[in-house]
């Protein structure tokens, strides 16, 4: 936060449904409570009544005595506040707004500490890296279930009569969650097992015949040794039981494990360790784990020195899957004639970056020269499309704007358009504002908020590398506003069902693909890193195309004309897809409807 703005901010709070027992909305009451606790008096506070509370005088008795408050009508709100939900805080220049309960609370806490650094008690209210509230989760469904949904469900259950009451659905949901298998997403363990396997095979090739005819096989001895090592590491007080003198040096536990391993390997003999590990997760019978802790010699090996895996793993599912699961998934598409659909970039042209002000260049956003060059190429691809779509007076929203690389260039290039940056990370947005201030741009606003808190109208929505479901949120926001969109997706592997979004998105994909199969497809769409072999990157690119085709088809169901193209050159980013949607078909349908309506009215008149 800038020191110069400490006493130049206005706070806007909602006043609605005023009654004796409920004067303020819950979020307004929470803000007032925090301000009283922090003894915050440096902000100008305005209550914004709706129609129901416009003439209610009761609020005056409930406002904390140390906080001066004034009423303000919705028509008198600053323009940047009208595009978002309350509560909201606006800086003195009127173009930087923080909106949403969690964002405003964090800002009040940080502001209080900036004014008085002795208020350590206030700063303690902030959690991880001081960027969130300790007791507030804006994203985690699990935290919401445990901290909000279940306590409320229990309270309601106790309050109501227990007659004819079933188990609250929240409790059933918790039970289902606790019954799910643990997510497996770390390949380090499997790579260490592979190192142990290689070491063992090397030793077996050089080892002579074992001593004693009744001795255990090398495999059983090694298993027993692993078990003994595990017990030593865990400081188990009971000594390991050795076998009898006749050469039966196997523990019963080691023999059982070896038996399980041999049965497991009957059908998977010859497969790589990682494939056998993945397939074991799909087995009906649970296979015993040989050891939960590797030998010290294996544990001490650096991750960078571990052998690579032959197959990459899909993350985020209830079990680890390898690319073998992708084959039946793709088979559905091939059978039904669905394939990735790309068109050439319609109008890619390059900016004359050397002729632009320095502050417009991405290198001013604290990027290395190599990353700045790739960022310029990414921006060229999007800007060339947006400039074809934009008209004077249009509002362009840069969702998930980060440091504002895209929005700043658009504001500078399209001076007749209004540009709005929407971003939840304060540091990134303030860096963007500093760049815009140095450029003297007057046609750009900054909104620090979750995407849902933006409620303004606009003509074009853009997003560069919107992570996971954020891409779908941006597209849906544009559809609701009947705006065109140019979106570059990212982090396909993070796509998962949420309260608002389920996958696949389109009816055509839903008819051939289950939710879990779609999740697998998304995981493989993430496998486009430059370090991967070319054939694997090609598979990843095709999977990206399928995921984005599903998104395009879903938007077409709303009357949009949508196409998927690739940014040029491909090397500008591993995630180089662009989804472009326009309202041409929607406008044509609207015009046809209006013509039909006018003709009907004329016919009725005659």
What keywords describe this structure?
disordered C terminus, 12-stranded mixed beta sheet, alpha/beta, 606 residues
How would you describe this structure to a colleague?
The relative contact order is 0.07. The protein has 21 helices and 12 strands. It is globular, with a radius of gyration of 30 Å. Helix 2 links the parallel strand 2 and strand 3. A 12-stranded mixed β-sheet has the order 3-2-1-4-5-8-7-6-9-10-12-11, with helices on both faces. The protein is of the alpha/beta class. 42% of the residues lie in helices and 11% in strands.
Strand order of the largest sheet: 3-2-1-4-5-8-7-6-9-10-12-11
Distance between the termini: 67 Å
Low-confidence stretches are 213-224, 226-262, 264-268, 281-287, 312-324, 585-597, 602-606
Number of extended strands: 12
Give the structural class.
alpha/beta
Spatial shape:
globular
Percent of residues in β-strands? 5-15%
Proportion of residues in helical segments: 40-55%
The major beta sheet can be summarized as: 12 strands, mixed
Overall mean confidence score, pLDDT? 77
List the helices and strands and how they pair.
Elements: E1 10-15, H1 26-38, E2 44-49, H2 59-62, E3 69-71, H3 79-82, E4 88-90, E5 96-99, H4 101-115, H5 120-123, H6 141-159, H7 169-179, H8 188-206, H9 218-233, H10 252-264, H11 273-280, H12 296-299, H13 326-335, H14 369-389, E6 395-399, H15 405-413, E7 418-423, H16 426-439, E8 444-448, E9 460-467, H17 470-480, E10 484-490, H18 507-510, H19 515-525, H20 534-556, E11 561-566, E12 577-582, H21 584-605
Parallel strand pairs: 1-2, 2-3, 5-8, 6-7, 6-9, 7-8, 9-10
Antiparallel strand pairs: 1-4, 4-5, 10-12, 11-12
Helix pairs in contact: 1-4, 6-7, 9-10, 14-15, 19-20
């Amino acid at each position: 936060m800038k020191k110069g703005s400490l006493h130049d901010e206005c706070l806007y709070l909602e006043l609605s449904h005023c009654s004796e027992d409920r004067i303020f909305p819950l979020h307004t009451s929470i803000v007032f409570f925090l301000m009283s606790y922090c003894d915050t008096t440096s902000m100008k506070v305005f209550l914004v009544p709706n129609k129901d509370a416009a003439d209610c005088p009761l609020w005056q008795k409930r406002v904390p005595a140390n906080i001066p408050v004034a009423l303000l009508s919705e028509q008198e709100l600053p323009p940047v506040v009208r595009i978002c939900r309350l509560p909201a805080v606006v800086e003195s220049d009127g173009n930087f707004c923080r909106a949403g309960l969690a964002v405003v609370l964090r800002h009040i806490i940080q502001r209080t500490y900036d004014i008085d650094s002795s208020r350590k008690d206030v700063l303690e209210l902030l959690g991880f890296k001081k960027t969130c509230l300790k007791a507030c989760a804006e994203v985690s469904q699990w935290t919401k279930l445990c901290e909000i949904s279940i306590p409320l469900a229990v309270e309601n259950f106790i309050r109501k009569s227990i007659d004819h009451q079933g188990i609250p659905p929240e409790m059933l949901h918790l039970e289902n969650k606790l019954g799910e298998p643990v997510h497996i997403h770390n390949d380090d363990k499997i790579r260490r097992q592979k190192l142990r396997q290689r070491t063992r095979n090397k030793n077996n090739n050089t080892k002579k015949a074992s001593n004693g005819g009744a001795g255990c096989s090398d495999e059983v001895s090694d298993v027993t040794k692993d078990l003994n090592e595990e017990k030593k590491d865990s400081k188990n007080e009971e000594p390991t039981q050795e076998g009898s003198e006749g050469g039966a040096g196997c523990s019963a536990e080691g023999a059982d494990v070896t038996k399980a391993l041999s049965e497991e390997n009957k059908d998977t003999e010859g497969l790589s360790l990682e494939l056998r590990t993945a397939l074991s997760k799909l087995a009906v019978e649970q296979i015993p784990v040989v050891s939960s802790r590797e030998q010290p010699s294996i544990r001490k090996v650096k991750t960078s020195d571990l052998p690579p895996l032959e197959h990459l793993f899909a993350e985020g599912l209830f079990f680890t899957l390898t690319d073998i699961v992708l084959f039946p998934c793709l088979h559905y598409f091939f059978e039904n004639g669905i394939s990735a659909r790309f068109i050439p970039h319609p109008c890619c042209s390059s900016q004359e970056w050397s002729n632009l002000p320095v502050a417009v260049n991405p290198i001013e956003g604290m990027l290395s020269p190599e990353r700045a060059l790739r960022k310029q190429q990414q921006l060229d691809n999007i800007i060339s499309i947006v400039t074809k779509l934009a008209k004077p007076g249009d509002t362009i929203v840069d969702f998930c704007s980060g440091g504002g690389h895209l929005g700043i260039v658009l504001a500078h290039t399209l001076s007749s358009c209004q540009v709005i940056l929407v971003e939840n990370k304060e540091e990134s947005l303030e860096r963007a504002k500093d760049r815009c201030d140095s450029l003297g741009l007057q046609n750009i606003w900054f909104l620090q908020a979750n995407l849902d808190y933006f409620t303004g109208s606009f003509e074009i929505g853009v997003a560069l590398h919107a992570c996971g479901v954020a891409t779908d949120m941006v597209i849906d926001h544009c559809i609701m506003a009947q705006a065109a969109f140019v979106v570059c997706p990212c982090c396909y592997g993070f796509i998962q069902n949420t309260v608002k979004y389920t996958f696949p998105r389109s009816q055509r994909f839903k008819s051939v693909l289950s939710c879990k199969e779609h999740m697998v497809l998304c995981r493989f769409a993430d496998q486009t890193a430059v370090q991967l072999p070319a054939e694997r990157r090609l598979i990843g690119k095709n999977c990206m195309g399928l995921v984005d085709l599903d998104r395009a088809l879903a938007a077409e169901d709303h009357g949009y004309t949508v196409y998927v193209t690739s940014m040029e050159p491909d090397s500008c980013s591993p995630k180089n897809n662009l989804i472009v949607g326009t309202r041409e078909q929607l406008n044509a349908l609207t015009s046809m409807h209006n013509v039909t309506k006018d003709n009907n009215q004329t016919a009725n008149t005659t």
